[in-house]
Specification:
Length: about 500
């Protein structure tokens, strides 16, 4: 279905802004060729056999990148016999072996090779296993070693390492997406970025929509307009292309959506099957929060087609919002700073786990009586400055200094008498024992301080705990709390 003329006009205007020009594309291609040449003519270790060196990702063979976001993901595909010839006693042993080998290849081959050629800021980075990051002629580079596994191997066995899928993703998009759809992919990625819901730096949920998910959604729905008109349904159906799976047995055939979701992907909000590996859900990392925000803005755009919906929306500061002191008193923050360099996703995941734990224990006493009501949290972070803010809100920022703990009922003997003997100050109401217990805190900020003195995250330093009614607090903390109020709470 073709979009209305006014929508098409908006799309064309945005595409002129976000599509890389020939100068940028030629520069990326030249840098890529130079780096490939450096690697090919380097002292390649005898223990590996290189099958390909290719640029992956949106700036590589896919050509779905946005303007002025150029980075190069260069993959070195090696013969998998390097690992398949070994026999391991466990998955852990295999993983440790690969990690050590890739670390050695990175330290003793790739890093010296690139430094000798004058690249800047050459360093080791980490994801599932080590890879090399560097800067060259204004472009950020990631150089990753992967195993060149066949399509049949991938479908039957899965990858050896997660990055082994990436070349298959690239080839699938290159071979199945036309130029018009590439433009639609750019529009969709840009739309996600406008609302801070793109990639693993998303401010809404642990992760937003990744580039490959955007490409598969356009592939499935054929166009961005058709996707927009049907966006709501992607949260209640399996997204995959049946023709892709004709050559293999579909493990989900004749199974309902609810069966597949509950049995195979119970923790995933969206299910977008990977056409190169049917057992992988590309949507697994996409948060419910990012989906809800994007769906809300898509509805707004479809109902009122304005170019404003394709403009960047900066995260709001809570200081700029029209909130009363009573409303502000419900917002709090915890500020961390990086003291040891590591991949930001590791700190993100640790802080998300901490946040979820805080919400859980803030909401209930150890004896399950309620504590603070309706506790909500979110994380924002700045990788360049190494800043991390956990923002929280609660409907009850101050609670009583004591609470009424339930004990056993009179009919539950002998527990009733044991409880009474253990707690002489217990009292009875309606044939049930109760106990008044003191809390070590009454204010949510004090609770955070009380709890966080017992918790630490390696590589991060706890800077301060504060609230939105403090006289002073950092701008980034204000942004974290503003983001929580504007982008999270309305969609819970």
């Amino acid at each position: 279905m073709e979009p209305p003329i006014e929508v098409l006009s908006i799309f064309n205007k945005i595409l002129k802004r976000i599509t890389p020009d020939e100068v940028e594309l030629e520069h990326i291609e030249k840098v890529t060729s130079v780096i490939i040449k450096y690697i090919k003519f380097s002292q390649i270790p005898d223990e590996i056999s290189i099958r390909f060196i290719e640029p992956q990702g949106s700036t590589g063979l896919k050509q779905t990148a946005l303007k002025n976001t150029a980075d190069i993901d260069l993959f070195i595909g090696i013969d998998p016999e390097f690992i398949l010839k070994h026999h391991f006693s466990s998955k852990k042993e295999k993983k440790e072996f690969i990690h050590t080998k890739f670390k050695d290849l990175t330290n003793f081959w790739l890093i010296p090779c690139l430094k000798d050629q004058g690249l800047n800021n050459v360093r080791m980075s980490y994801a599932e296993h080590p890879y090399v990051s560097a800067d060259f002629k204004g472009i950020e580079l990631d150089i990753v070693i992967c195993f060149d596994v066949s399509s049949d191997y991938l479908q039957k066995n899965g990858p050896i390492t997660a990055v082994d899928r990436t070349p298959h993703h690239t080839r699938f998009i290159r071979d199945n997406i036309n130029d018009k759809q590439k433009d639609d992919i750019r529009l969709l990625k840009h739309f996600f970025k406008c609302y801070n819901c793109y990639g693993d730096k998303s401010a809404l949920g642990r992760s937003g929509f990744i580039g490959y998910s955007a490409e598969l959604l356009i592939f499935y729905y054929d166009s961005i307009w058709n996707l927009f008109l049907n966006f709501e349904e992607i949260s209640s159906k399996i997204i995959f292309h049946p023709k892709i799976f004709n050559s293999i047995k579909n493990p989900y055939e004749n199974k309902s959506y609810h069966t597949i979701r509950s049995n195979t992907f119970p923790n995933d909000y969206l299910i977008i099957l990977d056409p190169t590996d049917i057992n992988r859900n590309v949507g697994s990392s996409i948060s419910k929060r990012a989906f809800k925000k994007i769906y809300y803005q898509i509805q707004n755009f479809c109902n009122n087609s304005s170019i404003i919906y394709f403009e960047q929306h900066e995260l709001p500061s809570i200081k700029q919002l029209d909130l009363t002191n009573e409303q502000l008193s419900c917002f709090f923050y915890v500020q961390y700073k990086e003291i040891k360099k590591d991949h930001y996703t590791k700190y993100r995941d640790k802080l998300y786990s901490l946040m979820e734990h805080i919400i859980k224990i803030a909401s209930k006493e150890k004896t399950l009586e309620p504590r603070f009501m309706n506790v909500i949290g979110e994380l924002v972070f700045d990788t360049e400055k190494g800043q991390y803010i956990l923002a929280f809100s609660t409907d009850s920022p101050k609670i009583s200094s004591s609470f009424k703990r339930e004990g056993p009922k009179k009919k539950a003997q002998p527990h009733y008498f044991k409880f009474k003997e253990k707690h002489p100050d217990a009292f009875e109401e309606n044939n049930q024992l109760f106990l008044i217990l003191k809390r070590p805190f009454t204010y949510f900020k004090d609770f955070l301080n009380y709890f966080l003195t017992k918790k630490s995250i390696k590589g991060l330093e706890l800077v301060r705990v504060g609230s939105a009614i403090d006289l002073e607090y950092p701008l980034f903390a204000a942004i974290g709390m503003g983001n929580l109020n504007e982008n999270i709470i309305p969609f819970i």
